[in-house]
Amino acid sequence: MQRLLIVGAGGHGRSVAEAVLAAGMYEVVGFLDDAAAGPAQVGSYPVLGTRLRQLNA
């Protein structure tokens, strides 16, 4: 199963998570969201950061 990091933790990001989980093709790892102010969760998934460049850290 492929791992998936979703960009955007708002309504559209949540819809993406629901759709891919229902399809059973991906493992949702978490979310990135520029609006996150500190540690946050979307359901049981963490918001892992606010910028894509953090993935290279």
Continuous helix count: 1
What is the number of E strands?
4
- Nearest-integer average pLDDT: 86
What percent of residues adopt helix (DSSP H or I)?
A: 10-25%
Radius of gyration in whole Å, from Cα?
11 Å
**First CA to last CA: what distance?**
25 Å
Order of helices and strands: EHEEE
Beta fraction: 35-45%
The structural class is alpha/beta
**Which stretches are low in confidence, meaning pLDDT under 50 for 5 or more residues running?**
none
What is the approximate shape?
globular
Q: How are strands sequenced across the largest beta sheet?
A: 1-2-4-3
Described by strand count, sense and barrel closure, the largest sheet is:
4 strands, mixed
Describe what you observe in this structure:
The chain is of the alpha/beta class and 57 residues long. The model has no long low-confidence stretch (mean pLDDT 86). Helices cover 23% and strands 37% of the residues. A hairpin with a 2-residue loop joins strand 3 (40-42) and strand 4. The protein has a domain at 1-27. A 4-stranded mixed beta sheet has the order 1-2-4-3, with helices on one face. The radius of gyration is 11 Å and the shape is globular. The protein has one helix at residues 11-23; strands spanning 2-7, 26-32, 40-42, 45-49. The protein has 1 helix and 4 strands, in the order E-H-E-E-E. The relative contact order is 0.25.
Question: In terms of topology, how is this protein built?
Answer:
Elements: E1 2-7, H1 11-23, E2 26-32, E3 40-42, E4 45-49
Parallel strand pairs: 1-2, 2-4
Antiparallel strand pairs: 3-4
Comma- or semicolon-separated keywords:
alpha/beta, 57 residues, single chain
